[in-house]
Amino acid sequence: MLTPAWLEGLSLGDPIAADPLEGGYASKTYRVRTSLGRTVVVKTQDNLPSDLYPLEADGLDALRLPGGFAVPEVLRVTSSFIVLADLGTTAASPTYWEDAGRALALQHQQTADKFGYHRDNYLGTLPQRNPWTTDGHAFFAEQRLLRYLEEPNCFGQLPSGDRRRLERVTDRLVDLVPDQPPSLLHGDLWHGNLLPGPDGEPGMIDPAVNYGWPEADLATLLIYGNLSETFFSAYEELHPLADGWRDRMPLLHLRELLCITAHWPDRAETVAEIHTILKSFD
């Protein structure tokens, strides 16, 4: 349904058509065509937290770096919708994944003094807690893993044995994950949140921004699909990774799996994947 308020005050004309786009589950997303021949992307949904879209805008602004990913400009944001510049439908350039590796390395070179962020935000529709924390192992344990155990869907689906395994694994994080700087993370870096920009360059949408371990971003990206080795070669030219980083990917991916379980009541396959990862540390 077209809503004139989407384009109010933007001098882009009136909305004349809205084509649904595939993407995240939290919002209905449309490419909206206007009476002046322009296109924008609108995300909207009822019954979402009133600060979800303003916090998405904050995250997009944080990720917009010179020489980095193409990140859509925020044209308008309210409690019920966000209007973004349209990155278009251009095909990926021949050097897309190599350029993406360099762009992510550049992003991860942006660091803070502590882990966290200047405000809490969202991963999906659940709060992502970002208190400034000096200890990266404590931050990941408490704010990225254990915090999900209190969510009703996790509490109801995870067996007590796996909850205890998770607690034991978090006690061992300092031995399992090497020290890493608090780097600027996208926070939900699966393939669906990367797409070509206007000139075919790598672009980025739908963030859950925070300062955390760089390997946490890589874990989400790698687990959800095979990446060209040119991506990792380009990344490591600017941001070398510690030995054994590939072996740590399943452990760091637990955060995404716990979040998925927390959002939906019937995730037997995800719960089984969590069990397999945790059992490997017995």
UniProtKB/TrEMBL annotation:
Keywords: Kinase, Transferase. Coiled coil: none annotated. InterPro entries: Fructo-/Ketosamine-3-kinase (IPR016477), Kinase-like_dom_sf (IPR011009). SUPFAM superfamilies: Protein kinase-like (PK-like). It holds the Pfam family Fructosamin_kin. This is Fructosamine-3-kinase. Belongs to the fructosamine kinase family. The keyword DNA damage does not apply. GO terms for molecular function: kinase activity.
